[in-house]
């Protein structure tokens, strides 16, 4: 009994310190999406330019990448090469949702940077983005064959993120 | 100087008014119905701006916070109750959007951890103090007992009366 009383505070402190040390390694700014494993929200967005628009009925059947972007968003510029590379590989369809943007600005932006998207929906008031739980552009989602949201990446998809995060997840979703 | 002192209360009141709640709520967002607007304000204090992450949507100037304030007002106008509005946003943004974490098994540690630590620590202190504070009295040796007996037998009347 006496020995337990001596050791107890040390064990309790070690457990608390260990728990807090683990907490230091997490990234609280990387928010988990509340939609993981949920069906894609019901939406239908008008097209941008000549490309077809985007609705939830276009998602499902195969693994699809959906990317929220805007011409006014500087980090979105950074991810365009990786998205173009993915789209050119034909691995999965790459669809875009243009977030709170002027259509003419978005068209000009896509013309100058290259347009990786097979479909583009334009979300003028950002209401569809709220339904998806988007808190800032760029955000990238993977939709599985059943039309469920399976993965969200917040921030620009660089070549490294594409190789380390996105492509392995696409492969896993295609196997499942 | 005396005049300045007279002005001081007025200055404090003026400062307090500028530091009032809901600084970022724009005039064009406000609802005409004061009851609904008051509910929107109290909901706004419960909801986290997901861009700045440590501000309420009422305090934040972020574009998304503006959109969420408008959305809250639209839901209220459409007849949602306060819990329905919170649930609407929770479905989209998860528990993180609520500044008051909901009570459920994964948050029990958060809710009860500090009180548990305090009670556990106090319990430990009481237990440890009790064990240490009351040592078993040593029995008197034969010599000590004899001396005590002798002392008691010597002068019982001299012992202090009030002891």
Compact description:
By secondary structure, chain A is of the alpha/beta class. Chain A is 42% helix and 18% strand. The radius of gyration of chain A is 21 Å and the shape is elongated.
Characterization of this structure:
The complex is a heterodimer of chains A (176) and B (163). Chain A is an alpha/beta fold. Chain A has a single domain (30-175), classed as Glutaredoxin (3-Layer(aba) Sandwich). Chain A contains five helices and seven strands. Chain A has helices at residues 2-25, 74-89, 103-113, 127-132, 159-175, and strands at 44-45, 54-55, 64-69, 94-99, 119-123, 139-143, 149-154. In chain A, the strands form two sheets. A five-stranded mixed sheet of chain A has the order 5-4-3-6-7. A two-stranded antiparallel ribbon of chain A has the order 1-2. In chain A, β6 (139-143) and β7 form a beta hairpin. Chain B is mainly α and 163 residues long. Chain A binds chain B through residues 1-2, 5, 8-9, 12, 16, 29, 31-35, 100, 125-127, 130-133, 135-136, and chain B through 50-51, 53, 63-64, 67-68, 71, 90-94, 96, 117, 120, 124, 127-128, 131.
């Amino acid at each position: 009994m006496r020995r337990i009383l001596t050791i107890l505070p040390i064990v309790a402190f070690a457990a608390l310190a260990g728990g807090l040390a683990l907490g230091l390694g997490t990234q609280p700014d990387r928010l988990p999406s509340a939609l993981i494993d949920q069906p894609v929200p019901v939406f239908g967005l008008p097209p941008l330019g000549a490309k077809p628009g985007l609705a939830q009925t276009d998602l499902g059947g195969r693994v699809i990448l959906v990317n929220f972007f805007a011409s006014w968003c500087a980090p979105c510029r950074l991810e365009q090469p990786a998205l173009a590379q993915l789209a050119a590989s034909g691995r999965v369809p790459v669809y875009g949702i243009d977030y709170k943007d002027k259509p003419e600005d978005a068209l000009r932006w896509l013309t100058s940077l290259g347009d990786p998207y097979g479909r583009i929906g334009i979300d003028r008031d950002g209401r569809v983005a709220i339904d998806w739980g988007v808190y800032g552009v760029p955000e990238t989602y993977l939709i599985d064959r059943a039309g469920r949201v399976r993965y969200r990446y917040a921030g620009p998809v660089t070549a490294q993120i594409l190789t380390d995060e996105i492509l392995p997840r696409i492969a896993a979703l295609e196997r499942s | 100087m005396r005049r300045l002192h007279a002005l001081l209360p007025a200055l404090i009141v003026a400062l307090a008014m500028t530091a009032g709640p809901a600084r970022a709520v724009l005039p064009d967002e406000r609802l005409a119905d004061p009851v609904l607007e008051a509910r929107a304000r109290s909901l706004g204090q419960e909801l986290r701006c997901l861009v700045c992450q440590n501000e309420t949507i009422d305090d934040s100037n972020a574009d998304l916070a503006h959109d969420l304030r408008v959305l809250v007002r639209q839901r209220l106008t459409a007849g949602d109750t306060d819990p329905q509005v919170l649930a609407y946003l929770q479905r989209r943004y998860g528990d993180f959007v609520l500044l008051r974490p909901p009570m459920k098994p994964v948050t029990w540690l958060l809710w009860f951890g500090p009180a548990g630590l305090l009670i556990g620590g106090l319990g430990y202190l009481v237990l440890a103090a009790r064990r240490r504070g009351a040592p078993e009295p040593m029995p008197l040796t034969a010599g000590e007992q004899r001396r005590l007996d002798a002392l008691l037998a010597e002068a019982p009347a001299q012992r202090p009366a009030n002891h």
